[in-house]
Design brief:
By secondary structure, the chain is α+β, with helices and mostly antiparallel strands. It has eight helices and seven strands; from the N terminus they run H-H-E-H-E-H-E-E-E-E-E-H-H-H-H.
């Protein structure tokens, strides 16, 4: 396992890019696919409209990732790993992606690869939170992701997933309010 290039990460002023590179480095170190989900993915797909302070990751197996984070100087607090100097938290969400691994999007950051949940699956995730938790804010972010990514969305896939997840009505409300000029 490679050491954490702390100086390189600290030299990156943009917190989003720093977190993205950290996820890519972790991906390399663990040698299995991980996927950025949650707020950090929303931040990526809304081009910074949403901001977060942590990296939510889905991993196949938490133990090896946790071991690497601890070796890199992250302190564990429940499922959260915090690095004081970097000011970055990593949240190991689950060992199952709420979506399709075949649709995960690869992003290049400083010559390395980070992986994000597909925008369609992220929209479904936000709609689930909106409907199940009665959280209109999550519907708003699903709307923003849809608007920003409209040109690249697989709409038949999204509609099928919305029906499967029981959030088709919420998705339909978003479709009715999509502003194609917003992206």
């Amino acid at each position: 396992m490679a050491d954490l290039p702390l100086d390189m990460l600290l030299s990156i002023e943009d917190p989003f890019e720093r977190r993205l590179l950290l996820a890519a480095l972790l991906q390399e170190a663990v040698e299995e696919k991980t996927a950025i989900v949650g707020g950090h993915a929303v931040e990526a797909y809304t081009l910074g409209d949403y901001t977060t302070g942590d990296v939510d990751l889905v991993v196949f197996s938490k133990a090896p990732v946790a071991s690497i984070l601890q070796a890199w100087g992250f302190a564990q607090q429940g499922r959260i790993y915090w690095h004081e100097q970097l000011g970055v938290a990593v949240d190991l969400i689950a060992e199952r992606l709420a979506g399709d691994w075949g649709r995960v999007v690869q992003l290049e950051v400083r010559g390395r690869q980070a992986f994000l949940i597909a925008p369609e699956d992220l929209i479904i995730d936000r709609l689930n939170a909106c409907v199940r938790w009665n959280s209109p804010e999550h519907c708003d972010w699903a709307q923003r992701v849809a608007e920003r990514q409209l040109d690249s969305l697989d709409l038949p896939y999204l509609e099928r997933r919305a029906a499967e997840e029981g959030v088709a009505e919420a998705w339909q409300r978003i479709v009715e309010n999509l502003d194609p000029c917003a992206n």
